[in-house]
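Issue 218. Parser rejects a valid record. Input:
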Amino acid sequence: MESNLNYGIIGNCQSAALIAKDGSIDWFCLPRFDSPSVFASLLDENKGGNWAIEVENLQTSTQYYDKNTCILITKYVSNSGVFEVHDFMPRYKTEDGSYYLPPDLIRYFKYVSGNPVFKVTYNPQLEYAQDETQSEIHEDFIKSHTVKGEYESIYVYSDMDLQSILERKRIVLTDDLFILLSYNQKLLKQDITRTYLKLQRTKAYWLTWSDKTAYYKKYNEQIQRSALTLKLLSYEKTGAILAAVTTSLPETIGEVRNWDYRFCWIRDASMVIKIMAKLGHLDMTKNYLNFIINLLPDKGKKMQIMYGINGESLLTETFLEHLSGYKDSKPVRIGNAAYIQKQNDTYGILMDVILQHFEIFSSTLALSEDLWTIVRGIIREVEENWHLPDKGIWEIRTEDRHFTFSKVLCWVAVDRAIKVAQILQRDSYVKLWTPLAETIKEDIFKNAWSNQVNAFTQSYFSNEIDASVLLMESYGFIDAKDARYVQTVDAIQKELEHEGLLYRYKNNDDFGKPKSAFTICSFWLINALYKIGRKKEARQRFSVLLSYANHLGLLSEDIDFETKRLLGNFPQAYSHLALIETAITLGEDELEDDNILLQQIHLR
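Output the parser choked on:
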């Protein structure tokens, strides 16, 4: 097991696997993202199960993505030879225009030189390793299945000797070989020719997808990898976007801030969709809005803050007591009790995406009418709730408060709804909603500002600082040059910065004082510093923050202040969308500087 989250992610928008730097698959759920795990040594090194490759007389191993794809390559150099393992989940278009994305994981062993020797440790533990998993060889595959409890099974096909795989015998590689793991029993014969074709088709799909991503002169490599990662967090069937592919990776080692993130938070997903549309991936926007429309078929139905990836509304939280947790950090949770919370910021973030849709798409009449119904429903909820306390963006599980960010996003909801009404020429709604937007804005300026700390604070009538209010400018609530915003940025940096990273907040919550940096907050500060004119500092901080990503450029939810170790669920959608936003902001600024320099040269 890795001491840091040095993992790569592969997937096909149905499920995803995490593969360690040494090639061990330590987390994989089938047939979907939110299914019980097949391999979960990430959450228990002894019980969870994994799928490793042990190379005899290994000298070095390196890991990288095939450029602009989600195919992960681990290269092994040993005393006896060299080979690569190309890990991927098939995804490509078929002749009828649909996508082939089976619940399969393929390990393609590419021969390079010599006679490398290795063993395969294949140790699946189905259903979160709650009961025994048994494996046996059938005519042309290995079947692994549960012995008691909930029945589940998976199948392995290979041109390697199946007995050698099961019994960890030495295998000498002299040509390309493959191992295919599938949730389903395959109907067609699996051989190296068919496997190679799947590899090339999958590679072609990802190269084509990446080619559609907007190109930026600065930070393009980081933007591209983050965009690919966000795509892997999307669920093809419904359009849902996951917060992360893992559960219960702790915010701090040994503590209990461990949550299941394999769900679709409306806030997180809407932020992701907005940035992906900016990058040119409009299909993701359409699919996500269809997901929202399908969630809210009835006008009186209240919107939850989060849903299952198939639109499930009941996400009961339970504990897997038999698992020790990541680095012995219990509990291991499945489900998430936050689904019952009231978080008023959700309205504004979703409305922001709906406005973006009307601004960039020529929409069908039917879709426009569906979205307009949702817009009016959201404003009804804002009218009823904006003046009430809630749990806030950070999902405080105890008392409700009048969180400033929630109030600002209620204003955003009304402001964007007014703009949608203007686009649709619904003038009566513009007149109806404008006073509401003004009332909310005045209320925030009156109650969220603290003369004592000289800043907008976490909640009304408090002196506590919170990184989320940095987004007041990003959502157009206040100008970056407004003295109150500049003073707020200064206060947040002074109060919340530690070892070059940012706390979300420092006041006690349900579990005491937070002990790790929330990755997205450090990106928010960089953006804010840039906006208020401290551009050189922003660039320097961005370069340092990027260096904390793992060997593949991936980020988790949190970073340890002292060691800069990645913590929390992984890879985190929040972190990567913020990376993209910050890279675009700073990159555009550097392009401006380049143009100024060219003009100066020309004048000379």
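Fixed in the parser; the record now loads. The chain has two domains: 7-211, 220-603.
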